[in-house]
Each structure stands twice: as C-alpha cells, then as structure tokens.
Amino acid sequence: MSTILVVSGTGTEIGKTVVTAAVAAAARDRRVAVLKPAQTGLAPGEPGDAAEVARLAGSHVTAVELARFPEPLAPATAARRAGLAPVRPFEVAEAARKLATEHDLVLVEGAGGLLVRFDDEGSTLADAARLLSAPVLVVAPAGLGTLNATALTAEALRSRGLDCRGVVIGSMPAEPDLASRCNIEDLPVAAGAPLLGAVPAGAGALPGADFAAGAARWLAPELGGSWAPGRH
C-alpha cells in the first residue's frame, strides 16, 4: 500500500526541498513521487523544487508540479497578482491520491510554512493533509528561535487533528553554535514528536550521486536512514 507524507516547515528557506529529497533518496528501493502543489518565484521552464528533488534523489523519483506563479510570494498572493487560478486543497489531494496508485511513496512538499494561504478563502497545506489523512513531517531550522516556531507548527497540527510524524533539521551547521546543539534535545520537546534527522548545511549543492549516497546518514530509521541524535 502506498504511503503519502506531507512535508511542511516552520517557515520559508529552511531546507524543505533538501529534506524532501533526502527522504526520497533514502527510499531508493521504492517508487517515489514528489508533488509540489504551488511553485512560486520561478519563470516557465526554470527547474522548480520538485525537479530539484528528483535531481538530488535519483531516477526512481517522479516530479510533479500542479501550478507555478512567477513572483516569489505566498501562493494565494502570487496567484492573485498573476491573474491565475489558485491551487485548491482538493486538487492537491486528488493529485496525491492519483500518484499513490502508481507509486509506493508520495511526498507532498508545501510552500513556506504550514498555514501559508493557497487561496483567498484561507485554504492551506493543512487542509490538503486533512483531506488525505496524511501525516506531516515538519522541517525546522537548527538555531535560535526555532523552538517557538516549531511548537506553534505542532500546535496547529494537533488543533486540526493532524499527525506530526516528527521534525527534521533542514540545515545543520558543520560547527553548530550553542543554541543549535541544545536544540537537538529541545526540538522534540517543543514539537511533541521525535527528531528524525538533521541534513547538513550545503547538502543541496552536492552532486546528485553524493547527495543520494549521504541521505540515509542524515535521517532516522523511521525515515529509512541510520541517523541518531549525537551523530550530526
């Protein structure tokens, strides 16, 4: 039976795409699809986040993008300013379910944080996750300020009856500062869910083969890897 996992985050530019790619790479013995409901800030023809996941993770990944809006804004705002139809949660759910009929794992990567609006009615990635009854993997920064944002995201998930699968640090510094080191222990407390990995800073710049080879070391066994707190 196929698994659908929603990948969200506590904000933007925190490593959601590289974490999605790492999860996809760690599932290299499975048929994987990555679905990007709304890609913003790119012109037609430029490779988006879904294509980047496929580049990093390997040829077993199918990349799908539902909509693209040229300005680097929240999806609802970008769609409105472009005069284009927004993405609706039911469209995300329908696309994910269709992909699930042909793939073993479907990763739905959001844009920005969990409650960023998809449309002017206030629909969000959380609504799509609820339609899918899918767990949500939260991507968080390593350093100071991440505990509050992670706690708020986890609280938003719980208030909607959604399962927080765990937290992955999207960009772990090679030489973490005091806050980053302490957050290894404190993030699970803030989230009320396990810490399931830490992707090293700069991993997204690696060649695809090197990224795929390293992915399992960055993720916990629950995500197909061998990572454990203290090994980052």
Describe it:
The protein is built from eight helices and seven strands, in the order βαβαβααβαβαβαβα. The chain is an alpha/beta fold and 232 residues long. Helix 1 (16-26) packs across helix 8 and helix 4 (89-100) packs across helix 5 (125-132). The radius of gyration is 16 Å and the shape is globular. The mean pLDDT is 95.
List the defining traits of the structure above.
single chain; seven-stranded parallel β-sheet; 232 residues; alpha/beta; 8 helices; 38% helix; DTB_synth_BioD; globular
What's the arrangement of secondary structure elements?
Blueprint: E1 3-9, H1 16-26, E2 32-40, H2 49-57, E3 61-69, H3 75-82, H4 89-100, E4 105-109, H5 125-132, E5 136-140, H6 146-159, E6 164-172, H7 178-191, E7 195-200, H8 208-218
Parallel strand pairs: 1-4, 1-5, 2-3, 2-4, 5-6, 6-7
